[in-house]
UniProtKB/TrEMBL annotation:
It comes from the Eukaryota. Residues 40-322 form the Alpha-carbonic anhydrase domain. PANTHER family: CARBONIC ANHYDRASE (PTHR18952:SF265). The keyword Zinc applies. InterPro entries: Alpha_CA_prokaryot-like (IPR041891), CA_dom (IPR001148), CA_dom_sf (IPR036398), Carbonic_anhydrase_a-class (IPR023561). It comes from Canariomyces notabilis. This is carbonic anhydrase.
Length: 328
């Protein structure tokens, strides 16, 4: 709670509008109808020695003190999701609902990500209720799945009436070239015909990592129309139940972390699904050509010092060693 308040105070001092993972929440309200899609002032490339760099090592310096949590926060995201850093919550222990978008949805290129503006959805988790604002994509994944990077990660961003933020993260894999698009294996189909409850549950399980997720295929079918930052396009109709069913049917790894983009505000309720979505190889290439690289480096274990603070001590020690002041 203290951390959340602190982040809110930090955020309140931000002077410039920029788009991040929190775009469309109270932290960065969406541009009103007719206004242009804002393009982010931060980036992912560049080292700390280059003071013009907009990369993650310089996020705190880009906007001071608004972004200071990026360099000093001790519960920063993303992290390596290893045993012990998260609590498992069953999908059936949260309530999640997302409205379909039969007329399609606005799909924007914010420069740092591509984002779908949603049209309603509710998450109840930990006794709190949140409303869905948007979802967007990172490439490669920001969280690591027990040490392993995944092809992409989708972030569904939710906000409560008390202005708290929850994010559902879903890894996205690249499907096998030969996979069918609807993800139902012939064997499972046959079993479903037996009408047994057991096989019904099997059938509701997430598509194998090899089967492309239809709604992702639909969204990315138009991504090349927003290859220029600041542009937007309308997607074809989106059926969200496909993703919601996967979330509900599988456990989620939860922990309290931060936004993975400036201002890196903490107090974010992370829910990383243990199930994965997929896109076809061709769709992955289409998405990668527009998104490029937009993944913050893994942060320290929650509760441990910020990696950039440790690294600053390391560079100081290296400088001393290089000066010859300290015997090797
Ligand atoms: C995570 O990886 C380690 C080895 O690096 C392994 O021992 C452990 O079982 C894995 N945990 C899960 C949940 O897969
Ligand atoms: C679903 O997969 C089956 C093969 O398992 C295929 O015959 C069918 O056409 C597919 N349906 C769609 C909508 O892709
Ligand atoms: Zn994000």
């Amino acid at each position: 709670m203290g951390l959340l308040l602190q982040s809110l105070l930090i955020t309140a001092t931000a002077t410039r509008v920029f788009a991040s993972c929190a775009y469309g929440t109270f932290l960065q309200p969406r541009a009103t109808e007719g206004e242009e899609v804002p393009v982010s002032n931060f980036g992912y490339i560049g080292n700390i020695a280059d003071t013009d760099s907009q990369g993650p090592l310089n996020w705190a310096a880009l906007e001071s003190p608004a972004n200071s949590a990026c360099a000093t926060g001790t519960r920063q995201s993303p992290i390596d999701m290893t045993e012990g850093v998260f609590q498992l919550v069953e999908g059936s222990d949260i309530q999640v609902q997302v409205n379909d978008m039969p007329e399609g949805a606005e799909f924007e290129n914010l420069g740092t990500t591509v984002e779908v503006i949603t049209q309603g959805g509710t998450l109840v988790s930990g006794g709190k209720q949140f409303e869905l604002q948007q979802f967007h994509f990172h490439l490669p994944s920001e969280h690591l799945d027990n040490g392993t990077s995944q092809a992409m990660e989708m972030h569904m961003v939710w906000q409560s009436a008390e202005q708290e933020i929850a994010v559902i993260g879903m890894y996205i894999n690249v499907a096998d070239g030969g996979a069918v698009a609807n993800g139902t294996a012939p064997a499972a189909k046959r079993d479903l015909n037996h009408n047994s409850r057991f096989f019904r549950r099997q059938a509701a399980a997430p598509p194998a990592a090899t089967a492309p997720t239809n709604v992702l295929e639909t969204i990315f079918s138009v991504v090349d129309q927003i290859s220029t930052p600041g542009t937007k396009v309308k997607t074809p109709p989106l059926v969200m139940s496909e993703v919601v069913d996967v979330i509900k049917a599988n456990a989620l790894q939860t922990y309290s972390g931060s936004l993975t983009t400036p201002p890196c505000s903490e107090g974010v309720a992370w829910h990383v699904s243990t199930a994965k979505l997929s896109v076809s190889p061709a769709t992955f290439v289409r998405a990668a050509n527009v998104i490029g690289f937009n993944s913050r480096f893994p942060q320290n274990t929650p509760g441990q010092p910020n990696i950039l603070m440790i690294s600053a001590l390391g560079s100081a020690a290296a400088a001393v060693a290089a000066s010859g002041a300290v015997p090797a």
